[in-house]
Design a protein that fits this description.
heterodimer; A: about 425 residues; mainly alpha; Cytochrome Bc1 Complex, Chain D, domain 2; 2 domains; two-stranded antiparallel ribbon; two-stranded antiparallel sheet; 16 helices; B: about 325 residues; alpha+beta; Immunoglobulin-like; 2 helices; globular
Chain lengths: ~425, ~325
C-alpha cells in the first residue's frame, strides 16, 4: 500500500515534466486556436444562426400564389411601378431600394411625404411572423397593400390600383387570376377607399355598390399577393460568418484559413455569450420576429409612437388578415393570429426585432433612424443596463469594437427574382 | 504501528468534530425554543393589538356609517362597520352597505397568472355570513374586459370562502368584483389592484441566474401532489420562434386519468420578466387524461418556466416545468 502511494508521488515529477514539454512545444498554436474553438453547446448555437439552417421559404397558406413564378414576375413589375402613386413617382422600390438591401438610407422614409418610421429591409422578410415594425399585418400580401393607400407613401387608393392594373397589366393579370372587369372612370370612382383619414374617398367608397367594392377588393388583394410572391424571393446570400460556421462544423483548425479574424471571432463569442445579443437576434435571420421596447429616445414633437400596442386590435380586425375572406388559408392555419398575444400593455413602444444580415451596409438604425452609426447603437445598448431584456451591461470599449467587427461579417449580397431576359 | 496511530488520530478528530457539532445542535435547538417563546409572547401581544385594531376599525366603520346614515337607515340595519381579522388583508363595505368583505391575498398583491384568495364575509352590522353565493370576477377596467377562466368559490365555514383559479392574463390595472348574494339580497364590492405585476418579477429577481440543479423533467406531480402531469411537444424537440403544440396528460394521485379539468397555461422567463409571446389555448381530448395546448411559442433562448394550473374535482393545484430553449 505504502509502496503504491510512494510510486504515485514518485511519478508526479515525471508527469509534470512531460506536461511542461508539451506546453513548450504547442503554446503558440493552442493560444491562437482559442478564439476558434467552440464547445458543443456553442457549436449548436452557431449552427442555429447559420444561413444553411434557414430552410426553404415558409409556406404562406393565406396566399396560394406565393410560390407561383408568374405571380412573382408580375409582382416584380408592380414593385417597381411608379404609376401606383399620387405623383406617379413613388414605387415600392423608392423606399426599398434594390441597391441598398431593399431599404433606404433615410432616418424616416419619404414617399409622397415623410413617414413616421424608417423603411424595413426586405431580405428574408418572408420568414417573419408579423410585418411592418409594429406587426400590423400577418401576411406579406396584406403588408404590401398598406403603403399603397397611405397618404404619406403611395397616396392612391384601391380603386386607382385596379384601374391602373386594368389599363397596363390586363393580359398578365387575366392569365393568372381570370377575367378582369373594366374599371372605367364613369363606372368606378378613381379615388375610393374605406379609410377614416380621407372623408372624400370614404364617401366615394360607400357610394359604390357592394358588388363593385368586392370587384375592386379582389383585384387589390391579387395585386398584394403578386407583390408578396416577388418580395418572398428577396433572400440573403451566405456571408463570411456562414462560411465560418461551415468551417467550424467541418472541423477546420488552421487559423490562417478561417473566414473570421480573431477579433471577429471574439465578437461572435460575445454576441452569443456575454453580450446576450441572441436573446432577440436569434435564428438564421438573426431575429425572433417578436416585439420589444428598448427604451429608445422618443421624437421631440407629437404623440409618442405606441408601436406594437397600437397594432394588435388592428390586425385582429383587418379586412385582409389570415382569417378574412380574401385569405386562402384554412382558419386552423392562421396560427399567429389565433394565438396572438393581446396584452397590449406589454407591447407599448415595442417594435419588431429587425434582421442583422448586412446590417453594417445599411445605416441609419432603429425604427425611426435614431442612430446614424452602428457604434451609436452598441453604445446605446450598453447604456440600457437596467433593461432585463437587453442586459448588455459591463461591455468594455474593446468588446464593442469586437462586436462591431463581427457584425461586419454578416454582410452578403441579396438575391431576388430578376426580370425575364427578352 | 505508525499507521495505527494515524488511524487513531483521525478517529479522534472525527469524534471531536461530532462532539462539537452536537454542542452546536443543542445550542441551535435552545435558540429555536427561545424564539418560539418569544413568538408566542408576541402573538399574545399581537392579539391585544388586534383587539384594539378591531375597535378602531369599528369606530372607523361607525364614522363611515355616519356619513352614510341615510342608506344604512334605509336598509333598516344598525351600525355599519368593517370587520377585520387579519392585519395583512384588504377590507371593503359593499356598495349598499349590506356586507363587510375582508380579502386575504398573499402579500396583499395579486400577480399575473393564477391566484388563490380568501374572502371573509360579514354582515355590515356584524356576524358571519354563511351559505352566501359569491361570484368573483377579475376585471381590467382600462381594457373593459375580464378573463375566460371563471374563479371557483368554495365555502369553508365561519364566513370564510376560498376563491381558486383567479386568472389574470396580463400585467396592469385589475379589479376583483365580488358579488355576494343571499336570501334575495345582493350586493357588490370592487377591490382595486392598480399594478398587477408578472409572477415573481420583483426587480431583484431579474438577472438572477438559473439555479444550477434545475429540474428539466417533463413529468411531475403538482405542488400539493393532487395531480400527476406529463407534457410532450408534438412534433419532437421544441424549436425557438416556432408556434407548436403540446400534449398534456393529467392523472390524479391514484393514477386515474382526468378528462374534465380546467387547465391554464402561463409561460414565463424568470431572468427577463416577460411571458409568452402568444396566448396558448387548451382543449381536452376527452379520453385518457389527454389535453392539447395549441399556440406555444418561445422567442428567446434560455430558461423558461411554464406553469400549468389544474382545477378538477374541486381541487386546484399547479405545476411548473423548466425548459431550456436553444
Amino acid at each position: 500500500m505504502r509502496k503504491l502511494i510512494l510510486g504515485v508521488i514518485g511519478a508526479l515529477p515525471v508527469v509534470s515534466f512531460f506536461l511542461a514539454i508539451i506546453c513548450i512545444i504547442y503554446p503558440a498554436e493552442t493560444l491562437a486556436m482559442d478564439q476558434h474553438s467552440w464547445n458543443n453547446q456553442e457549436k449548436a448555437i452557431l449552427r442555429s444562426l447559420w444561413l444553411g439552417s434557414l430552410g426553404p421559404l415558409p409556406v404562406d397558406p393565406s396566399n396560394k400564389y406565393s410560390d407561383n413564378p408568374k405571380a412573382a414576375a408580375l409582382g416584380r413589375k408592380f414593385f417597381f411601378e411608379d404609376h401606383f402613386s399620387g405623383n406617379q413617382k413613388v414605387s415600392c422600390a423608392t423606399c426599398h431600394r434594390e441597391d441598398y438591401f431593399f431599404t433606404d438610407n433615410l432616418p424616416l422614409s419619404h414617399g409622397m411625404d415623410t413617414t413616421p418610421r424608417r423603411s424595413m429591409p426586405l431580405m428574408g422578410v418572408a420568414y417573419n411572423s408579423w410585418f411592418f415594425w409594429d406587426g400590423r399585418t400577418d401576411s406579406l400580401w396584406a403588408q404590401a397593400l398598406g403603403p399603397i393607400e397611405s397618404k404619406l407613401e403611395h397616396g392612391i387608393s384601391r380603386t386607382m390600383s385596379a384601374y391602373i392594373i386594368s389599363k397596363y397589366y390586363r393580359k398578365e393579370y387575366e392569365n393568372l387570376f381570370g377575367p378582369l372587369p373594366e374599371f372605367m372612370e364613369d363606372a368606378f370612382p378613381q379615388h375610393a377607399r374605406p379609410a377614416l383619414d380621407d372623408p372624400e374617398a370614404l364617401k366615394a367608397w360607400v357610394l359604390m355598390t357592394p358588388e363593385q367594392r368586392e370587384e375592386v377588393n379582389k383585384v387589390y388583394v391579387n395585386m398584394g399577393k403578386s407583390i408578396a410572391a416577388f418580395v418572398r424571393t428577396i433572400v440573403p446570400q451566405p456571408s463570411p460568418f456562414d462560411r465560418y460556421v461551415e468551417q467550424i462544423v467541418a472541423g477546420e483548425t488552421i487559423t490562417s484559413r478561417m473566414a473570421l479574424t480573431d477579433d471577429e471571432a471574439r465578437g461572435l463569442r460575445l454576441f452569443i455569450g456575454k453580450a446576450k445579443c441572441t436573446n432577440c437576434h436569434n435564428g438564421p435571420m438573426f431575429t425572433n420576429s417578436d416585439f420589444h421596447n428598448l427604451g429608445l429616445p422618443q421624437k421631440e414633437k407629437g404623440e409618442p409612437d405606441m408601436g406594437r400596442a397600437a397594432a394588435i386590435t388592428g390586425v385582429l380586425r383587418s379586412e385582409f388578415n389570415c382569417l378574412s375572406k380574401y385569405s386562402d388559408a384554412h382558419p386552423n392555419d392562421c396560427l399567429e393570429l389565433r394565438f396572438i398575444d393581446t396584452s397590449d400593455k406589454k407591447y407599448v413602444g415595442a417594435f419588431k426585432t429587425p434582421t442583422l444580415r448586412s446590417v453594417t451596409e445599411r445605416p441609419p438604425y432603429m425604427h425611426a433612424g435614431q442612430f446614424a452609426t452602428l457604434r451609436e447603437v452598441l453604445e446605446f445598448y450598453r447604456s440600457q443596463a437596467d433593461n432585463p431584456e437587453l442586459g448588455h451591461k459591463g461591455l468594455t470599449d474593446k468588446e464593442l469594437d469586437q462586436l462591431e467587427a463581427f457584425l461586419h461579417t454578416l454582410s452578403s449580397p441579396v438575391s431576388s427574382l430578376q426580370a425575364e431576359v427578352k | 504501528m505508525k499507521r495505527i496511530l494515524l488511524i487513531v488520530g483521525i478517529l479522534f478528530f472525527l469524534l471531536a468534530g461530532c462532539a462539537a457539532k452536537e454542542e452546536q445542535t443543542t445550542g441551535w435547538y435552545e435558540e429555536f425554543k427561545k424564539q418560539q417563546q418569544m413568538k408566542e409572547m408576541e402573538a399574545e401581544h399581537g392579539q391585544m393589538e388586534a383587539g384594539q385594531m378591531q375597535e378602531t376599525a369599528a369606530e372607523h366603520g361607525h364614522m363611515e356609517a355616519g356619513q352614510m346614515e341615510e342608506s344604512a337607515a334605509e336598509h333598516g340595519h344598525g351600525e355599519v362597520k368593517v370587520t377585520k381579522h387579519f392585519d395583512e388583508s384588504l377590507t371593503k363595505l359593499t356598495d349598499n352597505n349590506l356586507y363587510s368583505l375582508e380579502l386575504v391575498v398573499p402579500d396583499k398583491h395579486l400577480k399575473m397568472g393564477v391566484n388563490t384568495v380568501e374572502i371573509i364575509v360579514h354582515h355590515a352590522t356584524g356576524g358571519d355570513v354563511a351559505q352566501a353565493e359569491l361570484t368573483v370576477t377579475p376585471w381590467m377596467p382600462s381594457m373593459d374586459h375580464g378573463v375566460m377562466q371563471k374563479p371557483v368559490v368554495t365555502e369553508r365555514g365561519g364566513g370564510l370562502y376560498s376563491v381558486d383559479n383567479v386568472v389574470l392574463s396580463m400585467t396592469g390595472h385589475w379589479q376583483l368584483q365580488v358579488k355576494v348574494a343571499k336570501d334575495d339580497k345582493e350586493d357588490t364590492a370592487v377591490f382595486d389592484f392598480p399594478e398587477v405585476k408578472a409572477m415573481g418579477h420583483e426587480h431583484a429577481m431579474m438577472h438572477a441566474p438559473p439555479p444550477e440543479d434545475l429540474d428539466f423533467s417533463t413529468m411531475k406531480m403538482t405542488a400539493t401532489d393532487a395531480f400527476h402531469v406529463t407534457y410532450q411537444s408534438i412534433g419532437g424537440q421544441i424549436r425557438i420562434n416556432r408556434i407548436h403544440s403540446w400534449e398534456l396528460t393529467i392523472k390524479d394521485a391514484a393514477g386515474e386519468p382526468i378528462n374534465d379539468a380546467t387547465v391554464t397555461v402561463v409561460g414565463d422567463m424568470p431572468e427577463h420578466g416577460h411571458g409568452l409571446p402568444t396566448e396558448p389555448k387548451v382543449s381536452t381530448m376527452g379520453v385518457g387524461g389527454f389535453y392539447r395546448i395549441d399556440g406555444m411559442k418561445f422567442t428567446m433562448p434560455g430558461w423558461w418556466v411554464v406553469t400549468i394550473s389544474i382545477m378538477a374535482n374541486g381541487v386546484h393545484d399547479s405545476v411548473s416545468f423548466n425548459l431550456n430553449i436553444l
